[in-house]
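Q: Got a minute? One more chain.
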Amino acid sequence: MNTAVRNYAVVTLAYWADTLADGAIRMLVLFYFYQLGYGALQVASLFLLYEFFGIVTNLTGGMLASRFGLKSTLFMGLGTQLLALGMLTFMPVGGLTVAWVMASQALSGIAKDLTKMSSKSAVKLVAGDAEGRLYRWVALLTGSKNALKGVGFFAGSLLLSLVGFQPAVMVLMAVVALALILAVTLMRGGLGDVKRKASFGQWFSPNRAVNVLSVARLFLFGARDVWFVIALPVFLSSVLGWKFWQAGGFMAAWVIGYGIVQASAPVILRGKDPGGKAATWLAFVLALIPLGIGAGLALHFDPAMVVVSGLMVFGVVFALNSAVHSFLILDYAEHDKVAMNVGIYYMANACGRLAGTLLSGLLYQTGVRWGMEGGIIGCLLASSLFLAATFAISFALPRRLPVGT
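A: Always. Here it is, folded:
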């Protein structure tokens, strides 16, 4: 096996392990603290540093990777995830609990984004120039990652129900530790070392297409997380009366299906390398779906049917839009700046997730006070506004793909 391909396979497997743990941690923390009586806004606050440090990590991580190689950032990511899990294992009881969990989530956010940037950047370096290969490989990596994140959602919810919080965290530590050991053992040479070393003045891309796509990505992921990450699981549990493992299982199935659609995007979109036009019109269609769900709830249709069916439709279109974005960032990025460009793009992604997470808890809690179907209607309206912004910004993306990047 070619060394570059072998190393890419290793970094991908490590990314999968970290993704599985990351999804499980999210459900463990969310449901455990909701079970303890924390409100939606309080639960959301536990993840704010996770998202904030995702912003910082994607910006500085791209610079680190361009200086030291993706191998180094991968190992740093896995090691940091182990530290984050260790903090949750020895979580204190009492006044320090919230601050302790927020700090552990900050480390988890750093870990997740270091491993994500390493694997996504590696695709550009390994795929070569064969027509359609980059699009297919990106779609496969992104789709499989999200499917495993869904498995993590279910695993975290199930482990919480079966063995409790601390034992569940120890299981996840074993998974990440095994991934780190295998990565150190199996990887050969370097991965992604570049001749041009990044400087602080190169933190922001001179590539207009990268910058426009990054801003569109910010609003796209804010639109998802404003109702998905806090409002939806709390709604399923408190309004629909689902048990934690049922709510986590449904969200897991959704994310797995979402990943399958992402991986199948080249087939669904007829195998052609997409341009900015595809991202633009997918955002337009997506903006209509939360409005439809909100209208169904406002008209007092069966809330379970409206939310579950609406979320399934939303997931299909969102997955296609996200898959197109994931291809475009690597297609727009220059080979010698790929880690920096991907870092900037995922920094914007993390900004959107941070805004969405905070608004998800805030709008849901406000909506509960106003009696708005468990508070989720306000989150859905905010989602549509974010997607309208994504649609408008995407008009500035190149209609045709850049040549020679």
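A: The first helix runs from residue 3 to 35.
Q: Perfect, thanks.
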